[in-house]
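Sample entry was shown:
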Amino acid sequence: MAKTKTTVYLDEDVLRGAKVMAARTGKKDYEVVEEALRAYLGMEVLERAWGAADMSEEDALKLAVEEVHRFRSGAS
């Protein structure tokens, strides 16, 4: 997947935490931020749902939204 350079403004503590996590895991700062955003946005669930041959894009998006709400509410 193509990457696009962008500028974001982060709280110093958030940036520091991302840098620490990157150093501990051997990743780049942007990889840690991207992984966190993907998790927060439920992108993995959305990509899995879109990969299902018998599911429409509308159904996949609905499933992804439900999963994000479930994740944010702390349900397992």
Remarks:
- The two ends are 30 Å apart (CA to CA).
- The chain has a mean pLDDT of 85.
- Residues 9-41 form one domain.
